[in-house]
């Protein structure tokens, strides 16, 4: 069953689509608190609108820290984002101006 | 890896995550936190963000939890219960306030029970410890101190005891150190004292057997308090020397904080030889004796053995030991005897309040279960099992008990401190009252009991209601089961009866307390001050006399001082000392048992300073001196005059104090009686000898002052310091304070029990109100019809009030029975009032009747104002 896309869900989906891939990055970009972002990520992942992978172990080892888990938008996710953008026209203007993705 | 801010919370919260996903979940959070920390994010921000792990974990647990069915049913029940309770905030608040007050009060009282009665005496195998006293059956005195000679004989001859130890708990000495002169309380003990109690010093060693011999090198063991205060718990104190009354004592040990000296708080423990010359005198009864029974020895068999030994010793020393017997009691009865009963009464009272609270809440919940009939029936119709509905209702009461318990513990923490401050010193010195693990366990048990008491009734009823065929009835709201009504009434009758019992007991204690505080102590307590001044024992009499004369002369000149005098043992404060009295010319008593009287040393002007009236003759004068030419004189009190001289005039009569060989002294005056050992005890015969003829070493200086006591105390201190820098002034109090202290135990019991009784009355009245109001609400239609058929307001009012009166009448009968039983328990605590005092009993019934009357009148009045047309249509 596809999840109900709320405004916050839409923001998270949009942030991931713009290359913000890690939990804390998504928070920085969306301005949403950690207690909101993570359950949304779990829901989107359960609904296969996002997929998750672990960052290559070598990258983390170089920086002497544990690896992070990152999220990517799926095909179904892009479709859902399009639907959400139609429902919430302001969605694409919601990201924090100073934020820039680390990945891609 | 260095510490990552927030990581510890993640590890904690990870326990909520289903096992299969836990590792990955933690890794993701730790990964993000570690990365952010490396990128220089401030720690507070990471801590803040890590809080998001909680909703994240709860979400995952909820959606991916591999929980069992029972578990999810439980969370479902809890959530449903929370929602149901939140929907009725007023009901929930009343119930929780009631229960948390009851639980808080019972927890606070239990903390006293636990710390004083259960753990107050921290000695190994307490049940094997016995107190052994001399007694005198003819004088009906069964707690005589033991003479030191007798004690050593007992110890040598008895076989019942593993250890038999003797001690004197209130020897006072002056402790001197550079810039310090301080009075200390010393416990003088036999060398085996600590071994007998089964305790060891925390540091250092116990006394050796040889150290109790006269002439052994003086040694001392410090109490924890003194060690902490003077030496800051420094372990290197062992081997150091302290000076007590000009004698140097080597410190060999220091006690732990949880050790309490029996009977009295002491600063230092030393072997018996500190008692000096007393140690050789068999006639001086000053030791308390405690024994540890050998394995398998009973108190009864120890008693038999000791009786034989005492008879033997009496035969060997007929001059001093005539008529003496022996008392052997369990130590805990002996030490806790006086305070056990009030604490038990308070605990019983608080349990009664708890029961009333539970009955009240159970009633409220029963009424509410009835109100929820439709909801419950609907759930049953949709397939809910009766067991599921019962479980749901039990969950609600469990949740209420949990919240109330948590609040109750909070209340207990808050009030235990205040309660402990109110405790009379006789209780406070036995155990420090606090909320500890055992008290919390008690609270948990109480909460479970509360949940069951309040919840089972409604649960059973709810599951019965939830049968499909009742749905129709429920919709009409006309179903009222007669048995349910009986349960409501039964609970309220029980509440009123219990509350009545508490009010009766509280009433008796209040009357008793009023009589006690209203008792004339025999002297004027206002603007009166006492303080102890002590001089070295070794100073010659003349020097001490001169010291006190100079002190009085200079103190009288202080501004605000109206009179100054002294007494060696102040009434209601110091321990007693008695003497045998032989009246010159009176025939010897048939059994050689001469009368006894309290013996006091008082200065000239003492009676006038105290406001004790002179009834005949004269006070001591400045000419009554210790010189050869000055005859020895005494003043006696009224009771002594009557006991010793009957109706004849005692002034000018002569008597001997002590043995027949003692010199005769002349009675020069008779003064009014004073309550000396306790306000409860009738005045005893007392004999006063002038301090100028027999000079004491320690006195209470008594000052009648004007204005504030502070400057007077400072002035006396200054004078004493200028006369002798090594003489301490201590133990200072106004007599108003002393009179309050003298009734502190009674004040404590009375005020607490009155508080509980008031709470019980309010709860019982609320209960009665609830039941009557519910009955009225159920019968609104019936009342409407009656009124439509011509019933007047007053008839309806009377009808409802009759119902309340019937409840009260039944409760009165039940309560009378319970009161009869309960007043037996408090009878021993009463002073000047009989346990069946009719005024108090009637007042208690009256108070309860008024409370119940008001509780019934409100719904009755509402019933009488029912509008028939609305009621019938409803």
Protein described:
The complex is a heterodimer of chains A (104) and B (874). By secondary structure, chain A is mostly helical. Chain A is built from five helices and two strands. Chain A has a two-stranded antiparallel sheet. In chain A, helix 1 packs across helix 3. Chain A is globular and about 45 Å long. Chain B is 53% helix and 17% strand. The longest helix of chain B has 41 residues, at 331-371. With 874 residues, chain B is of the alpha+beta class. Chains A and B meet through helix 2 and helix 3 of A and helix 2, helix 3 and helix 4 of B.
Mean pLDDT of chain A: 84
Structural class of the secondary elements of chain B? alpha+beta
Assembly of the depicted chains: heterodimer
Across the major sheet of chain B, the strand order is 4-5-10-7-9-8
How are the strands of the biggest sheet of chain A laid out side by side?
1-2
N→C terminal distance of chain B: 74 Å
**What pattern of helices and strands is seen along the backbone of chain A?**
HHHEHEH
**CATH homologous superfamily assignment of chain A:** Winged helix-like DNA-binding domain superfamily/Winged helix DNA-binding domain
Which residue ranges of chain B are poorly predicted, with pLDDT under 50 across at least 5 consecutive positions?
474-479
Strand content of chain B: 15-25%
Query: What proportion strand of chain A?
Result: 5-15%
């Amino acid at each position: 069953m596809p999840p109900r896309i709320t405004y916050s869900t839409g923001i998270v989906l949009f942030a991931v689509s713009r290359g913000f891939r890690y939990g804390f990055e998504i928070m920085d970009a969306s301005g949403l608190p950690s207690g909101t972002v993570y359950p949304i990520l779990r829901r989107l992942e359960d609904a296969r609108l996002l997929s998750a992978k672990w960052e290559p172990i070598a990258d983390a080892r170089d920086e002497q820290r544990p690896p992070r888990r990152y999220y990517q938008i799926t095909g179904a996710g892009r479709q859902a984002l399009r639907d959400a953008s139609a429902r919430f026209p302001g969605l694409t203007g919601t990201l924090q101006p100073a934020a820039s993705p680390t990945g891609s | 890896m260095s510490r990552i801010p927030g990581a510890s919370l993640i590890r904690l919260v990870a326990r909520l995550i289903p096992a299969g996903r836990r590792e990955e979940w933690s890794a993701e959070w730790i990964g993000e936190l570690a990365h952010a920390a490396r990128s220089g994010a401030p720690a507070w921000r990471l801590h803040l963000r890590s809080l998001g792990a909680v909703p994240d974990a709860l979400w995952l647990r909820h959606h991916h939890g591999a929980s069992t069915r029972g578990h999810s049913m439980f969370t479902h029940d809890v959530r449903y219960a929370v929602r149901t309770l939140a929907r009725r905030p007023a009901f929930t608040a009343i119930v929780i306030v009631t229960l948390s007050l009851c639980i808080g009060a019972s927890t606070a009282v239990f903390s006293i029970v636990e710390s004083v009665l259960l753990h107050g005496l921290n000695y190994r195998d307490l049940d094997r410890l016995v107190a052994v006293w001399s007694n005198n059956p003819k004088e009906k005195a069964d707690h005589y101190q033991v003479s030191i000679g007798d004690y050593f004989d007992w110890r040598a001859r008895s076989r019942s005891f593993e250890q038999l130890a003797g001690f004197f708990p209130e020897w006072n000495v002056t402790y001197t150190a550079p810039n310090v002169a301080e009075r200390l309380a010393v416990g003088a003990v036999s060398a085996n004292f600590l071994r007998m109690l089964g305790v060891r010093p925390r540091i250092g060693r116990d006394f050796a057997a040889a150290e109790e011999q006269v002439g052994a090198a003086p040694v001392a063991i410090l109490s924890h308090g003194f060690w902490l205060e003077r030496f800051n718990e420094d372990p290197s104190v062992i081997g150091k020397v302290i000076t007590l009354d000009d004698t140097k004592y080597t410190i060999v040990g220091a006690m732990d904080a949880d050790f309490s000296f029996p009977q009295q708080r002491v600063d230092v423990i030393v072997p018996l030889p500190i008692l000096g010359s007393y140690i050789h005198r068999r006639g001086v009864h000053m030791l308390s004796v405690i024994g540890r029974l050998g394995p398998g020895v009973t108190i009864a068999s120890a008693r038999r053995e000791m009786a034989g030994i005492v008879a033997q010793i009496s035969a060997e020393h007929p001059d001093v030991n005539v008529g003496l017997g022996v008392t052997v009691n369990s130590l805990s009865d002996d030490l806790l005897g006086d305070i056990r009963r009030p604490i038990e009464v308070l605990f019983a009272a608080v349990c009664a309040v708890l029961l009333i609270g539970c009955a009240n809440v159970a009633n409220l919940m029963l009424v509410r279960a009835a109100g929820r009939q439709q909801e419950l029936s609907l759930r049953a119709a949709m397939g809910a099992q009766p067991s599921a509905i019962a479980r749901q209702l039990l969950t609600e009461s469990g949740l209420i008990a949990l919240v109330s318990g948590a609040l109750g513990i909070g209340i207990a923490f808050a009030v235990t401190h205040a309660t402990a401050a109110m405790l009379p010193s006789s209780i406070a010195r036995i155990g420090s009252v606090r909320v500890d693990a055992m008290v919390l366990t008690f609270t948990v048990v109480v909460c479970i009991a509360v949940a069951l008491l309040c919840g089972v009734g409604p649960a059973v009823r709810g599951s019965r209601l939830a049968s499909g065929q009742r749905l129709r009835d429920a919709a009409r709201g006309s179903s009222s089961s007669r048995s349910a009504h009986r349960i409501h009434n039964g609970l309220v009758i029980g509440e009123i009866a219990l509350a009545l019992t508490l009010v009766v007991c509280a009433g008796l204690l209040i009357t008793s307390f009023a009589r006690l505080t209203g008792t004339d102590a025999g002297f004027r307590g206002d603007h009166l001050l006492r303080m102890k001044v002590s001089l070295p024992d070794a100073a010659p009499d003349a020097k001490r006399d001169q010291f006190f004369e100079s002190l009085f002369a200079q103190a009288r000149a202080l501004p605000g001082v109206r009179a100054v005098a002294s007494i060696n043992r102040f009434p209601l404060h110091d321990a007693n000392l008695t003497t045998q009295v032989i009246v010159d010319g009176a025939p010897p008593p048939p059994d050689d048992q001469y009368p006894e009287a309290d013996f006091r040393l008082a200065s000239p002007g003492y009676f006038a300073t105290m406001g004790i009236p002179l009834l005949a003759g004269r006070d001591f004068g400045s000419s009554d001196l210790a010189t050869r030419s000055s005859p020895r004189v005494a003043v006696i009190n009224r009771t002594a005059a009557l006991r010793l001289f009957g109706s004849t005039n005692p002034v000018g009569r002569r008597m001997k104090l002590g043995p027949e060989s003692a010199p005769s002294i002349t009675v020069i005056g008779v003064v009014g009686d004073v309550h000396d050992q306790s306000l409860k005890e009738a005045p005893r015969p007392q004999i006063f000898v002038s301090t100028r003829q027999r000079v004491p070493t320690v006195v209470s200086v008594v000052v009648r002052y004007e204005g504030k006591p502070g400057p007077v105390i400072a002035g006396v201190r200054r004078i004493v310091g200028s006369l002798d820098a090594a003489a301490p002034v201590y133990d200072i109090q106004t007599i108003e304070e002393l009179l309050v202290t003298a009734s502190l135990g009674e004040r404590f019991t009375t005020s607490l029990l009155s508080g509980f009784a008031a709470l019980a009355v309010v709860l019982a009245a609320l209960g009665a109100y609830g039941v009557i109001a519910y009955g009225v609400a159920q019968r609104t239609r019936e009342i409407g019809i009656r009124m439509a058929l011509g019933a007047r307001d007053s008839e309806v009012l009377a009808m409802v009030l009759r119902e309340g009166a019937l409840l009260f009448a039944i409760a009165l009968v039940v309560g009378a029975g319970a009161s009869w039983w309960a007043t037996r328990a408090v009878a021993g605590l009463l002073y000047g009032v009989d346990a069946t005092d009719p005024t108090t009993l009637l007042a208690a019934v009256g108070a309860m009747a008024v409370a119940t009357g008001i509780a019934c009148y409100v719904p009755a009045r509402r019933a009488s104002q029912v509008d028939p047309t609305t009621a019938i249509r409803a």
